[in-house]
Amino acid sequence: MNGTVDIRELNDLIASKSGVVDMVRQGMNQSIVGQKHLIDSLLIALLSNGHILLEGVPGLAKTLAIKTLSSIVDAKYSRIQFTPDLLPADVVGTMMYSAQKESFQIKKGPVFANFVLADEINRAPAKVQSALLEAMQERQVTIGDETFTLDNPFLVMATQNPIEQEGTYMLPEAQVDRFLLKVLVSYPSKEEEKLIVSQNIRRSSTQIRPLLKPSDILEAQQVVEQIYIDDKIGQYIVDIVDATRHPEKNGLADLAGLIAYGGSPRASIGLALASRSYAFLKGRGYVLPEDVRAICHDVLRHRIGITYEAEANNITSDEIISNILDKIIVP
Fold first, then answer.
1. Continuous H helices in 202-329
2. What backbone torsions phi and psi does residue 78 show, to the nearest 5 degrees?
3. Could you tell me the domains of the chain?
4. Is the pLDDT of residue 162 over 80?
5. What is the Cα–Cα distance from 273 to 40, expressed in whole angstroms?
6. Kind of pairing, strands 259-261 and 115-119?
7. Above 90 in pLDDT, residue 269?
């Protein structure tokens, strides 16, 4: 898919830029215990120039993760606590009248940052969600008659609480699709939790020093764009996504009654982008089928709708994806 490419030269280039990954992991491990999958997912979203949706109960270091990442990269960080009374202007900004200048002045909102935490995004009404998701997609914000381009890198990490649904507004499928990844954050192991408790009862907060500049991230993103994806891997990605739309045509007739709708072309694009970033994390200049399989659940779980029949039988989109991966022939 990338045309003629020198893999050895690409591997050397990736090796020269791998320090970005090492520094981020090093910095994250100073303040976060465990959560390797969360850290890698943040890296994949950042390197792919995408956004990430986290789902997990409170207290699993979701907020700490994005705040630590912004400290490591020495970038601007903002947090938006979504509530039912939030207005779109509270996110993107508004025009304010200045009595001194006798004119309206633009006051930019918290979305004007490199790393934006949208905490409990499903607690705000649809207009507020749309304002943020439009900024995510267009990478620009219009206030009054002026349009402003958002800074790069630009990463939105939104969180959802899966257990407390009273007073929440579900994200529409078309808007959830704007997130490159949806990651389920799990509880730590007993050993990890023991270390977390030990660190916190000492009340010694770790000071995170900036290790990178935003320009380092932009350079790494450019390298990721050069990672080679063979046509066979491209076909493998298309076959997986097609199986979510037409399971019966791919030898998965038993899934036909469980899938309400499958992934759009954005799902195929997301799989390709995230696969390249995953290969970068592994220090490779080319994508392997295991790279696609490794990130498939995070890319597709929010892009597959399940039927009432699936819900009645406690079948999740993750199980459907696993069945598809078991069936589709690996190149």
1. 214-224, 231-245, 265-281, 289-300, 308-312, 317-327
2. -140, 150
3. 36-190+211-220 (3.40.50.300), 228-327 (1.10.8.80)
4. no
5. 14
6. unpaired
7. yes
